[in-house]
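Anyone up for a design puzzle?
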């Protein structure tokens, strides 16, 4: 016959096991849930009022492109190409270009993306990837990666320069113990960093201004010359223009991921999110057309940087996700976190 003490002991053990299992489950949930501060302090983006190229669905881009290397279609590429198999193209190397199946000079509708609605959502288009890198010791970087199907470069001397299929831009917020410290704004080859206290905010959320056509991110509205990386003047040779056109909330249509810098592995916070595409090392647009292509022309013959059409960009995996400083590492420029908002 089982004594009362034995039953009590069994009950205590069972209760401890239950509590332990619950704690373990809670721990699992914590590691598989987007940190609340990543959403709470996610930047909002003002799209420029004259920009016809809105944020675009990341996956839909694959439906309108074909993978090429040196203008030749990659043999045995998956068909259809999806976000779940895009990384298989890595077998063909880093010079794979997701090349438009349409003549982009005809301005096919898919290049124009989706205009955010009154709530700031790009309905039917998941146009953002939010990637969280926990450095440890309380330091967390949250990358807000924005995708556009087309980049319309600002005119130079009245002529189009640096147009290309595919455009990845981003802002990054660095947190310490869940509190935002600084914000990075990507701008062409480089960008700018400001303290969180310095940036414009709506509530507690930082505000970024997306430039007309190029989608470079700035901390202020107005005109920005980016001839010299990291130094934005009110006038110059290469001008970006920003204003309060359409307010976009990138969190409303986004995939959320964590990034392990040690293993260089991405993990989805939701198992329904595709992951393989993040490992793709190729380009998200056409290769720069040769001068023999009737669509191409250069302001200065022989200078690629003055070409009308340039090559598409690399994706999120190439955006220095494990950076030491808030800024990207570019030509040994010092990382200056500006304490006052300005150009």
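Challenge accepted. My sequence:
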């Amino acid at each position: 016959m089982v004594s009362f003490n034995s039953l009590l002991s069994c009950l205590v053990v069972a209760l401890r096991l239950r509590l332990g299992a619950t704690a373990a489950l809670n721990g699992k949930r914590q590691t598989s849930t987007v940190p609340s501060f990543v959403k709470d302090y996610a930047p909002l983006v003002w799209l420029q009022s004259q920009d016809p190229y809105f944020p675009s669905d990341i996956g839909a881009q694959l439906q309108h492109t074909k993978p090429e290397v040196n203008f030749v279609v990659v043999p045995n590429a998956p068909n259809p190409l999806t976000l779940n198999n895009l990384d298989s193209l890595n077998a063909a190397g880093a010079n794979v270009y997701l090349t438009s199946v349409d003549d982009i000079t005809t301005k096919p509708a898919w290049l124009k993306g989706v205009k955010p609605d009154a709530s700031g959502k790009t309905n039917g288009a998941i146009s953002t990837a939010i990637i969280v890198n926990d450095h440890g010791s309380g330091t967390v970087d949250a990358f807000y990666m924005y995708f556009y199907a087309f980049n319309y470069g600002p005119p130079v001397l009245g002529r189009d320069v640096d147009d290309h299929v595919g455009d990845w831009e981003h802002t990054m917020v660095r947190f310490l113990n869940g509190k935002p410290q600084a914000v990075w704004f990507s701008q062409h080859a480089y960008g700018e960093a400001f303290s969180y206290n310095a940036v414009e905010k709506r509530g507690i959320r930082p505000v970024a201004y997306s430039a007309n056509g190029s989608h470079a991110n700035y901390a202020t509205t107005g005109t920005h010359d980016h001839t010299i990386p990291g130094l934005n003047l009110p006038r110059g040779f290469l001008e970006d223009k920003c204003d309060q056109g359409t307010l976009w909330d990138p969190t409303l249509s986004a995939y959320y991921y964590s990034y392990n810098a040690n293993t260089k592995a991405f993990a989805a916070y939701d198992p329904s999110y595709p992951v393989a595409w993040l490992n793709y090392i190729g380009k998200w647009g056409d290769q720069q057309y040769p001068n023999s292509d009737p669509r191409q022309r250069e302001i200065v013959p022989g200078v690629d940087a003055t070409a009308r059409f340039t090559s598409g960009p690399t994706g999120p995996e190439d955006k220095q996700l494990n950076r030491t400083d808030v800024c990207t590492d570019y030509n040994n420029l010092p990382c200056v976190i500006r304490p006052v908002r300005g150009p």
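A detail worth pointing out: The radius of gyration is 23 Å.
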